[in-house]
Amino acid sequence: MSIEIVVREIGRRQKREIRLSRRAAVVDLLKQLGQNREMVVVRINGKIVAEEEHLKDGDVVEIIPIVTGG
To answer: What are the residue ranges spanned by the domains of the chain?
Structure first.
């Protein structure tokens, strides 16, 4: 079984639909997308979540890069 989520990476124009296993967590999604989990913040349905958070069918995920500097 799998789930389908919508992913929006801030800084990119397009949203995309991604299929993952039903047991997938945020960390699994970040690995699949090649994102460094220490360099992004993830929101699911508008709420900031930890990388251990499990994804559900229909979730809308936003990946927000952390900007550093001064």
So the answer is: 2-65
The two most distant CA atoms of the chain are separated, in Å, by: 46
What value does the CA radius of gyration of the chain take, rounded to a whole number of Å? 12
With beta carbons less than 8 A apart as the criterion, state whether 20 and 51 touch.
no
Q: Which CATH class, in words, describes the domain spanning 2-65?
A: alpha beta
Alpha carbons 29 and 6: distance in angstroms, whole number: 11
Give Cβ neighbours of residue 10 (< 8 Å, ≥ 6 apart): 62, 63, 64, 65
Asked if residue 62 has pLDDT above 80, the reply is: yes
Residue with tokens 């801030």: 10
Which tens digits make up the pLDDT trace of 20-59? 999 999 999 999 999 999 999 999 999 999 999 999 999 9
pLDDT at 70: 67
